[in-house]
């Protein structure tokens, strides 16, 4: 079958990927999907004699190059098998190609990708979604352990926690620019983390989902953002759509890196909606722009994304006619779970569920 979704499950040390893989297999197999899983290649290599901490640059280079080559080979072989399967299929990769880049200098990564005949954009486009599970080292330290993976190199102490948090954020930066990168928070209740994984994959498969409001706040910026926050610029244009259907184009740029996405949202029941996202090229984006909804302005905003104490946040600073409006949106914080508000933000008021603060409404002329 041709409609095969390839999903990366990634994250920092002790993030819950192993448990998530089991839940994914159980849940989607019960829905009639054939679930293929690709093992974590660096773990296979470590168990077979590779030393990723070696100071021998030649050995390290050849090991990392081989890691990428085997990763791509496994993915290609499993994709061929999935195409011959008579059931709808999902391929779940325990880490993906761009994870490798987080463990070396940009110069070495460029050298390795060039020698393999590929590039970062090509590797990013291999996958339909990337789910990043936040390490327990950030916000759930009491559950952090290195005992469940003998090949893990981080120590189980304060320095190990610091390194784990750093690796977590380096991996997110490596995948930044993927149109369906989703960061999965830590929670007091681990089951909430697993629920979010299943929900995000269901969305990729275009399965209707319950409408769940993310908590949103109008805020004031009163301090400095973390140095490792990810900054991007977003232009969102709403199109003339069908009744009960919201359709939009989004241009999002991180410096010179630009991604274009076409999204539709349609209610399928009172508390259920179907969201479809697809990445498009610049030409199609420009062709579709003239069918913009004449009743709505384009939304233009700057976004800062970051993890704070295990919770993932996006802060949008609106520009042009909405200048002065700043919205904090949480991602995956469950009902009743306390908000870990960063000290550089001050809440003006909560606007969760307030349609006046939806982008669709803010765009009205």
Structural class: alpha+beta
Strand content: 25-35%
Give me the oligomer status. Answer: single chain
Report on the biggest sheet: 10 strands, antiparallel
Number of strands: 15
Q: State the low-pLDDT regions, or none.
A: 147-152
Sequence of secondary-structure elements: EHEHHEHHEHEHEEEEEEHEEEEH
Q: Treating each run of at least 4 consecutive H or I residues as one helix, how many helices? A: 9
The helix fraction, in percent, is: 25-40%
Shape: globular
The largest sheet has its strands arranged as 6-11-10-9-8-12-13-14-7-15
Euclidean distance between termini CA atoms: 45 Å
Question: Explain this structure to me?
Answer:
- By secondary structure, the chain is of the alpha+beta class.
- It contains nine helices and 15 strands.
- It has helices at residues 17-30, 41-47, 57-84, 106-116, 120-124, 158-175, 190-204, 282-288, 359-362; strands spanning 5-11, 34-38, 89-94, 129-133, 181-184, 209-210, 216-221, 230-238, 245-254, 257-269, 272-280, 299-308, 311-318, 326-331, 345-350.
- A ten-stranded antiparallel beta sheet has the order 6-11-10-9-8-12-13-14-7-15.
- A hairpin with a 2-residue loop joins strand 10 and strand 11.
- The termini are far apart.
- The relative contact order is 0.13.
- Mean pLDDT is 89; it is low at 147-152.
Features:
30% helix, 10-stranded antiparallel sheet, 365 residues, alpha+beta
Produce the secondary structure layout.
Elements lengths: L4 E7 L5 H14 L3 E5 L2 H7 L9 H28 L4 E6 L11 H11 L3 H5 L4 E5 L24 H18 L5 E4 L5 H15 L4 E2 L5 E6 L8 E9 L6 E10 L2 E13 L2 E9 L1 H7 L10 E10 L2 E8 L7 E6 L13 E6 L8 H4 L3
Parallel strand pairs: 1-3, 1-4, 2-3, 4-5
Antiparallel strand pairs: 6-11, 7-14, 7-15, 8-9, 8-12, 9-10, 10-11, 12-13, 13-14
Helix pairs in contact: 3-4
